[in-house]
Amino acid sequence: MHILRCYQDIWLTLPEALRDGRDASTNQTLDRIQRRMRENMPSFPDLLPNDPSRPALICPQSDQEITYAKLQDFVRAFDLGLPCPAQGRPRVAVMLPNGPSLALAVLAIANRYTMIPMARTVAPDQLRADVEAVEADAILMLEADVPKVQLDSVLTVFVVHPQPDLTFTVTPTRPPTTTPEATPDHNKADDVSVLLFTSGTSGKKKLVPITAYNLFAGAVFTMNSVSLTASSRCLNMMPLHHIGGMVRSLYAPMLAGGTTICCASFDPSLFWDVVEKHNPTWYYATPTMHQMILAESEHRRDALAQSQIQFIINAGGGLPATLALQLREVFQCTVLPSYGMTECAPIASPPTDYKLEREGTSGRPVGPDVAILDGASPPRRAAPGETGRICVRGFPVFPGYLTSEGINTDAFEEGGWFDTGDLGCLDQDGYLYITGRSKEVINRGGEIISPIEVENAILSAARDPTSILYGRITETLAFSAPHDVLQEVVGAVIVTPAGQTRPDLRQLHEALGERLHQPKWPALIVYMDEGVPKSNNKLQRIRLGQRLSLDTLTDAIPVAERHYEAKCPPQGSPLTLSIPQTSCQIHGSQAHSHIAEAAGSPDVVMRQSPVDGFLQAVFFNAQETKPTVSKLAQALRSQVHGYLIPSGVKCVDDPIPLDMHGYIDEKAVDEAIRNLNSSPGDSSSTEFRVRELFAQALNQSVDDITASTDFFAAGGDSLSAGRLISTLRREFDIRLSGDVLFIHSTVGDITTIIEEACAKNAAKEKTTEEDLPGCRETRSSTNPLVLLIQLIPMLVFFPLRVGMQWTIFVFVMGETARLFPPDDELFGRLLHIVLVGLASRLAIGIIAPVAAILFKWVVMGRYRAGLYPMWGSYHTRWWLTQKAIRVAGKGVFNYFDFTRMVYYRLMGAHIGRGVQIHEHASLGEYDLLHFEDNVVLENCIIRPFAAERNTSMLLAPIRIGARSAIGLRTVVAPGSTLPPNTCMGPNSSSWELGSADEANRTLNSSNIPTPHWIWSLLVIEPLTLVAGFAYRLPWLAGLIPIVMHYPFQGTDMLRVIVFWFTNPSRIGWHILARIYYAVVGPILWFVAILLIKGLLDLTCGRSRPGPASKMSLRQKVRQAALFKMLPGGSLAPLTRLIGKHYELVSITIRLLGGRAGKRIYWPSVGPGIQDFDLVEVGNDVVFGSRSHLVTSDGSGRERVIISDGAMLGDRAVVLPGVTVGEMAMVGSGSLLRRNGFYPPDTVWTGSKNGNAIQFPTITTHADKEKQALSSSSSSSSSSGEDEKKQPRDTTRPFGRAFYQGMANFFVIGIPGIVIYSTLMVIISTVWRLLGVLSGLLVLAHALRQDHYAFAREWWQPFSVYGLFCAVVSAVSFAQTLIGVAVVISTKWLVMGRRTEGAYHWDRSSYNQRWQFFLTVETLIKDSYRGIGVLPMLSGTAYLNLYYRLMGASIGKDCALLANGDPNILLTEPDMVTLGDRVAVDDASLVCHLNTRGEFELHPLVVGDRSILRTGSRLMSASSMGKDACLLEHTLVLSGDYVDDGCTMQGWPAEPFDGKRV
Q1: What does the alpha-carbon distance between residue 1256 and residue 1259 come to, in Å, rounded to a whole number?
Q2: 487 and 506 in one domain?
Q3: Phi then psi for 195, rounded to 5 degrees?
Q4: Contacts of 875 (CB under 8 A, 6+ apart)
Q5: Has residue 1342 got a pLDDT over 90?
Q6: How many Å apart are CA 859 and CA 877, to the nearest integer?
Q7: Is residue 890 located within the same domain as residue 912?
């Protein structure tokens, strides 16, 4: 460092001619010296002090620090294993959030590779383009960002895993294909350490290479310029992916041995927290940041009094003199302007004793040689005070722009000068003043904005038929407009074609919302009808704001007053030529007639809104006509300019007030408006205070702010939003995220958030980790012994069951053929093989559950209540027992109610008399279940098991009192004690006992009237057998070729039967018979049901609504028979063939008696329908999975009506008599009460006290436009009383894409869907046969070898059984591996990596591809007797590995599907991020939103040690902090966040303050 300082000092004193390179000998000497300096430059780690106690980096959020010793070791050891290229260094992009991790990555990667910082906020497409432009070899990013960018196929992606000690580890997303022979050592002086982009004003960004020596020199000069020492502490809130942040805030402090406090982002409140706690001595920030810090200081006097800040450095724009003086006055320290750029940092800075005596200066040169050159050739230095081009040379100026051909030095002029592109002058004392910007970039408060990016976004919107700007803009030009605080903002010149109306700022912002980040939106518009300023066909952006003589914008200027019109100057006009402009006039008279016509009401008075300056339409006599802003906007868009469209509408029922002369009484009109704006009691005290704060931030009257006022629509921007958030934090003493106002921008939304936060603060007691339940000691999910044990169900249990069934089959068939030889009749042979098959199934139905019962008692004994660490000894035994029970099934014990009671009692459950348990009820941990007399359990979940914090297993007893009833889909939590006569309705939980009511008892299916058992025996069971026989008829037909030739008699019938069965042709017929069964069987079954139903309708009559007491015997028989044949109304066997979502499903519903409209989106699972005759579903209805349409209960039967365009969310329960109105939306897990009416266009969700909760109706912009169009058309067509009302268009994206041909991609039709669905059914059927057939073939081979083990002795059955099991075990496990590989490969080939966004059916092929993938996924879902591969691996590290391979980000030792009996799996794993030791029971982590058929994907995040219990759901875009818990039956709404350590319960979720254990 000392050598560099000496060299630079000496070089700057040399004569100008020598520095210009005109003397050859001097040039050689200088080159030799510089070469020696570069050769002797030590590596970066060697420049750092090796001090284990001195902090180098501090994280203020966690109060962790990295010492210099740790930093030195980390940087030295950091190696990504990338091979050395032939030239240069491997290029590594870094896309990390600001903070210690990014700081550490910059230092470590720039030491060994070429580091390329990337902003995380950049769009994925732009990121890919940037990565390709820099030819990056690898990129580092967080796991959460990997699915967003999808770069795995382009380059090596390293996932960064932050560690508690602030360091991080990295893992590649895909393993390296080769091991590099050599990896690079630390960078030498001439190696490119950092590669940066310029701002790209010419349309193409340039690449700026920063060598290791440039970086070193820049840091040294910065350190010298502000006299940094080991005691200096930098508070950094600047982004570290810019040169200023890297050199000033990171490298310079490190070389000085000081400390950098790395903040994740800028937050003025956090700034003062850091000042108070960590004692920084200086900071570096932009003018905008200074403004907000000063504003916050007024409320942080204590922190200011403790401040040890000695100097402040300004960056990112000119420092206004008033702001500099204010900074010095508040902080009582030195304030230093500065100047630098990507190509050279630093350039200038004042001395440390600077007193602000030279207004406007950027300081004196602090490193390079700086000159003001004129425009002559060759250029000459300008005299002091004379303006010219600011040029630099010498260290640390970059070597030249990087191109595909290498370093290009064309940017350097004669004498080695580099033109910065800025204009300025030097005074007599060498102080630099920047007088203008020759560059075209827009420097908005330190944020550099490319005008080309803005222009491209505007023109793109103008070409988009769905955009509000479509066809309304032919040319545009973005330029820099002056702003009083931000220095510069974006202005836009717009050219509108003849005959089109001008779009205003509101319409422009609406169109740019999905295309540009909000700070890049234009803040003013200039209309030029003849074109935009050009010279030689190049846009003239430079100095356009000055040429237009635009006044400096302030936040107080209303939006309406930011519209101007001007005449375009002739092409080639000099930049000094002024362009006259005038403000666009906004008068009510210009639009009055159009507004009156559009609204159909002449009684309208125009006012100008004081909020935004736009027109405000006040309608009188508005009892019937209630115009809205959206309707007017739609009607007026093609008639008047955008700035003439009212921003507000007021409706007064009274007539227009007139004065005594018949003119409008203006004062009376104003009084009427004031009365509308403020009425007593219209808002809470919280809301009124929020309105006041909004008004202050917007510089408006509180009377003009209502609950629906949108902050940004009313003129707010990001700067004022930051101020408002800071004020709200102080006012209500709550925590608010920095982006809350951008997500929830209305007064009403913010009020709700604040009230919830205040309520939490009031009720919340501080809890420590010790207060939270969960085991303190944990076990590892990757313990080798545990991993081996977890393969037992696949390798042992399943083969034992299958082997037993087939061993019984071959021996029984052989022995019965020997003892009772079948006759020569074909029917006798067929009957023989069928009866043997039934006998083997009956035998295994007895043996398997009995074996599972014995296994449970031997391995577990009695279940013991307590908390146990997962993957410990007790949990492993529980897991193994649960899998044994699952594989075995209930068998014959599930045939009747009394046999189920026997089974549960044998398992250890305490069950009283008269207990009724639904066959599909989910029970477990039986010793801990206590059911008293006459308890009734519907299809519910009652498990004493639950996951607990820190991957713990909770076992707690459940007691249900006598005569209690548990409703459909209700969850009883571990540890629950329900008193006698507790009647819980559907979709509830034991945490919600307050909603239990005796009226719920009649809702249970057990109370539905049934006929006498004799009718079941004589009618119902025979009809069920007929339907079952029809299903199996194709299989029986397929058996005929098999039994055409029957085995002959022999001494060893086992050999005879096996050899006979394994004949190749017979195996082929067996496979074909099973295919017949899978493909033709469901069709014949459905036909049989139609015939049986038709017969029952003819003899018993169709279902009709009515009370249960009046139901006739014939109706009871009919109802019971259909319930038996179609349990839950499931058509799954048929829909697997014909597609689950499409018109063929609607046809089957109609054939069964239901009323189904057009374009219905049916779900993948369900809906469960009791009686099709009582269900009416309108057009364009969208169903979610696993919903239930209940038409019958103990009170009687009623119709269920779902009207046009409605949506029924997943897991909703609709009780008898419900009517869902047109376009109503019923959310996930809703419970619709009996005989309830849910009006059109309403929104409902949840389940509280036996009914759903109505939410405020949220109308999307697209819906508003459609409603406006619909209203307009209906208005214009309803002049005559006899005219019919136009039907409402309820078509959703699914219908538009699939039935109306309006998709922008190829849509596979119903024939194609039927073909690939049927093909997958065939493949899956054959796939499941392979294990058994392999066992038979191997057995035949072994018998032919005459092994003694298979001799006709007493051990022969055991030998056959053992061989069968071994072969089935090997084959089924191999099938598992292959099936999983096929599914994973299909996912990546068909789906790719999912990213957040909208994927509506008519705009994206995503849903179509997803449906195909789900069809392929049945390959592993149907395995293991329909249990599926993934449930067999529940709670294991194998399942975590599977989901990681599917793209999920899963931490260490997570337990997924922990209870072992899941109903739903991760549907979008690559959108899910789970921390360490997260436990998920049978809960939903679903990342998609299907809102009336509009499909969106959003990520989910769950923090460390958090848990989701059975029946809970984390909706798309929501997240959980660390140690959080969702109890049973809990819904976290989309976008919500569960705080660290918080327990939530309810649907929707609310904080839970009780004890969960």
Answers
A1: 10
A2: yes
A3: -125, 120
A4: 779, 868, 869, 953
A5: no
A6: 7
A7: yes
